[in-house]
Amino acid sequence: MSKKKLAGKVINKSEKTVKVLISRRVRHPKYLKIYKVNKTYLVHDEENRAKIGNSVEIVESSPFSKKKSWELSKPPHQKFGGGGKIKEK
pTM for the complete prediction? Predict the structure, then answer.
């Protein structure tokens, strides 16, 4: 069985752990209204690369602690770009 992958946004950070918010849209079975469902996951970040506001991709892993069984799969990237160096003239 393959590992689950999710994408979300970092909303809180501490030492080697980040809290990631996953938002998804769901249709109500009876009333057919579309509404948003939010869930947060504690994610292991060994190198402390993620910053608050970054978009990240997480993958399921073996448990690191009681509530933490996800880890970063790709390096985080900023939502609004700007990750490059400024060239001096």
Answer: 0.80
Q: What is the CATH number of the domain that holds 45?
A: 2.40.50.140
Predicted local distance difference test score (pLDDT) of residue 88:
53
Would residue 17 count as lying in a domain? yes
Q: How many domains does the chain have?
A: 1
Q: How far apart are CA 33 and CA 30, in angstroms?
A: 8
Is residue 38 in some structural domain?
yes
- 53 lies in which domain range? 5-72
Instruction: Please compute Rg for the chain using Cα positions.
Output: 16
* Residue that the structure tokens 């579309």 belong to: 34
The gap from C-alpha 25 to its chain's centroid, in whole angstroms, comes to 17
**pLDDT tens digit string along 15-38?**
999 999 999 999 999 999 999 999
Tell me the C-alpha distance between 39 and 20, whole Å: 8
Beta bridge mates, 7? 57
Distance CA 28, CA 69 (A): 29
